[in-house]
Amino acid sequence: MTVLGFTITFHSPFRVGAAYARDGVDAAVDLDDPLPADSLKGLMRAAAGELLGGDHRAVAAVFGTPARPSPWSWSAARPPGRGWSQADLSGSRHRVTINPGTHSAVKDHLLLGEQVWVPSARFEVTRTGFLDAGGLPEADQVLVLRCAAGGVHGLGAWRRRGLGWAGIIPDDGEISEADVSRLLALAGERQ
Asked: In which domain, by residue range, is 66 found?
């Protein structure tokens, strides 16, 4: 069984919204699981799609398709040495919609969202399924996972506005020039 470890370094607070609101909060954080596995997988799939092209066979082989599930399984992120706690909730951030004509706030368009702050968190990606016999070799799939993680620079809501800036580094080292060359060669292999 192949297990890949990753460390996320946060450069700002983040918020992956919960499926529910709480009293006084429009965009709540799930403190039991503020950075779930499906969010991490989605971020890495999006980064792989940008690097290789969304319809590239390597993206389908690593992250799965509706017809064939991914042979890899993601864990949720956890701060090193402990779980998440109420202390990680670093307050809230407001967001308001501005009317372009009047340059004033639109009535009932003020949002209060919670945010989480920790210096770092860890997660793992484990191979739990079989690779297709004629598909992408495991070494190439590991390359895609490592480079996709390195391509993630923001996570959660409002990441384009300064919330959720982060970097992900594989445990076995940062992405090298050789990794990038191998990924570019793989990107050129259309099938």
From this structure: 3-188
Residue 23: strand, helix, or coil: coil
Count of Cβ atoms closer than 10 Å to residue 128 Cβ? 13
pTM of the model: 0.85
Q: How many domains does the chain have?
A: 1
H-helix segments, the chain = 37-52, 57-63, 138-150, 177-188
Q: Which residues does residue 187 pair with via DSSP β-bridges, in sequence order?
A: none
Q: What is the pLDDT along the chain (191 residues), one digit of tens a residue?
A: 899 999 999 998 888 877 676 777 777 778 788 899 999 999 999 999 999 988 899 999 999 989 889 999 999 999 988 778 766 766 666 667 788 888 887 777 776 777 888 899 999 999 998 887 568 899 999 999 999 999 999 888 765 566 788 999 999 999 999 999 999 998 888 65
CATH number reported for the structural domain that contains residue 135 in this entry: 3.30.70
Nearest CA to 9 out of 77, 71, 72, 101 is that of: 77
Q: Is 2 exposed, middle or buried (0-12, 13-18, 19+ CB in 10 A)?
A: middle
Q: Is 165 within 8 Å of 153 (Cβ atoms)?
A: yes
What letters, b where the CB count within 10 A reaches 16 and e where it falls short, cover 131-161?
eeeebbeeebbbbbbbbbbbbbebbbbbbee
How many other CB atoms are found less than 10 A from the CB of residue 73? 15
